[in-house]
Amino acid sequence: MILSSWANFSFKEPPSYTKADLLGDIDPTRHHDFKKLRSKYTTKESAYLRDEVYDAFKEMWKAAEKDDISLIIVSATRNRSYQSGIWNRKWNSFAGEENSRAERILQYSSMPGTSRHHWGTDFDLNALENSYFTSGEGLKIYNWLIANAAEFGFYQPYIAFNNYREQGYREEKWHWSYYPLASKFQRAYNHLVEYGDLNGFQGDEYAEKLQVIDTYVNGVDSWPKNHD
Ligand SMILES: [Zn+2]
User: Fold this and answer.
1) What is the DSSP string of 70-88?
2) For residue 79, how far is its CA from the centre of ligand 1 (angstroms)?
3) How far is the centre of ligand 1, averaged over its atoms, from the C-alpha of 175 (Å)?
4) How many whole angstroms from 7 Cα to the centroid of ligand 1?
5) What percent of the chain has pLDDT over 90?
6) Is the Cα dihedral 166, 171, 173, 174 positive or negative?
7) CB proximity list for 181: less than 8 A, separation 6 or greater
């Protein structure tokens, strides 16, 4: 008797992500967990984020506006096939040895299947250049983000190398991530994704040779409030 009632009991499952979610094999325009951004939040004709991330971004945007800071998303969710297009284009335009070619692309661009942009938790703000954020309006925006973003759950995963981050992409002052969700994706990624999943693009054998999961997927800053 007791056994049969247990059998009917439905346990609440912890959040689980499929490999497709983690590797970016998704179409955000048709995925029910994503929303299209209103045009005032982005320069793109069509940009998507996960609902929870978009809600948090809107809150941050409002607070920024009150302080005369205008945040604008220049890139949001990108799926794996889009990232393959970026990768293959760069691969074909760079000269030199293959492994140095891969490492050169990896200074700023992800290997297909390894980008945080696949997850719908991350976006790029205002300008894709560090120099923009070092003076004038850009510096004001950056200082505001450093002071306030964490309150809304956002942080800059690719900060300059420091004690908490010793490898991976170069610094990206424009790239911001929604930690409450992205940290779950990162954990799931480390459980589920293997080097064999990273294929289908030029030079894909360098995924394993360069240990891109350890070096790049995990080469991010920790949550700034955990820094001691
Ligand atoms: Zn980015």
Assistant:
1) ---EEE----HHHHHHHHH
2) 13
3) 4
4) 45
5) 81
6) negative
7) 50, 52, 53, 119, 121
Cα-to-centroid distance, 56 and ligand 1 (Å):
18
* Model pLDDT, residue 48: 98
State how far the Cα of 164 lies from the Cα of 16, in Å rounded to an integer.
Answer: 27
Enumerate residues 6+ apart whose C-beta is below 8 A from 163. Answer: none
CA of 126 relative to ligand 1 center, distance in Å = 11
Q: Determine the average pLDDT of the residues in 64-90.
A: 97
Distance 128 CA to ligand 1 centre (A): 8
Overall average pLDDT of the 198-205 stretch: 96
Q: Name the residue type at position 139.
A: L
pLDDT at site 7: 46
pTM of the model: 0.90
Please check whether residue 181 is in contact with residue 133, taking contact to mean a CB–CB distance below 8 angstroms. Answer: no
Average pLDDT over residues 16-30: 94
Task: Name the residues around ion ligand 1, CB cutoff 5 A.
Answer: 124, 175
